[in-house]
Amino acid sequence: MKKVIKVKLNPQSIADAIKELEDYKADLERRVRLLLKTLTDRGVQIAKAKVVEHGIIHDAELTYSIHGYISVALNAGFIRVDDEHAVFFELGTGPVGANNPHPLHPTYTSDAWVTKADGKPMDELYGWTPLPYGDGKTYYLTTGQKSKPFMYETALKLRDEFPAIVKEVFG
Fold first, then answer.
1. What is the mean pLDDT of each run of 10 residues along the chain (171 residues)?
2. Can you give the pLDDT at residue 1?
3. Residue 144 class from Cβ within 10 Å (0-12 exposed, 13-18 middle, 19+ buried)?
4. Which end of the chain is more exposed for a tag (fewer CB within 10 A), N or C?
5. d(CA 26, CA 33)
6. Contact 92, 102 (CB under 8 A)
7. Residue 118 in contact with residue 140, Cβ under 8 Å?
8. How buried is residue 131: exposed, middle or buried, by Cβ count under 10 Å (0-12/13-18/19+)?
9. Contact between residue 88 and residue 109 where contact means Cβ atoms under 8 Å apart
10. DSSP three-state, residue 25
């Protein structure tokens, strides 16, 4: 978006140039806000599609917890995931995660562990081993899950699409 302003050295021409610069600045600020919104909205779309692509669709809470917001103060857009389990899907867990790690290589535990089900059929969803206890609750033995890096892949795809989106917004 190239702009050339020609000015003659007289009061009216300088006033016109100042007005043109102010208009250009306002248009540039509008386009930057549009770029932030477009990138943020696209990132949310990609993240939700990646959740489906990784087969995490049985956990609708994760998909519904993905949203974007713009910070005018920071002049930045953010893609946020509020589901408390998102990090476990993203990074993977336990020995299974260690064998299928996240691209950024976090550390994994090498031990299996027991977790409560919170009313979900974890044996059907994840293949975890049910362990009924005397308190009427079912606990599950798990060795973890592989990384399903939906946010990392969102960042990569958004980075690839960035030039085209900038070109679309700024023409």
1. 79 90 93 96 97 84 94 94 92 89 84 75 76 78 89 98 96 87
2. 64
3. buried
4. C
5. 11
6. yes
7. no
8. middle
9. no
10. helix
Report the residue count for the chain: 171
Place of tokens 């973890």: 144
Among 56, 62, 53, 58, residue whose Cα is nearest residue 85: 62
Q: Tell me the C-alpha distance between 143 and 128, whole Å.
A: 8
Cα distance between residue 87 and residue 81, in whole Å:
9
- Residue recorded with tokens 């994840």: 126
pLDDT at residue number 42: 98
Q: State the DSSP code for 120.
A: S
- What pLDDT does 120 receive? 72
Confidence (pLDDT) at 132: 76
Both tokens of residue 109? 């535990």
CB atoms within 10 A of CB 146: 18
On the 0-12 / 13-18 / 19+ scale of CB atoms within 10 A, 52 is exposed
Instruction: Kindly give, in sequence order, each residue whose CB lies less than 8 Å from that of residue 51, ignoring residues fewer than 6 positions away.
Output: 57, 62, 63, 66, 89, 150
DSSP conformation class of 135: T
pLDDT tens digits, 99-123: 889 999 778 888 888 877 666 777 7
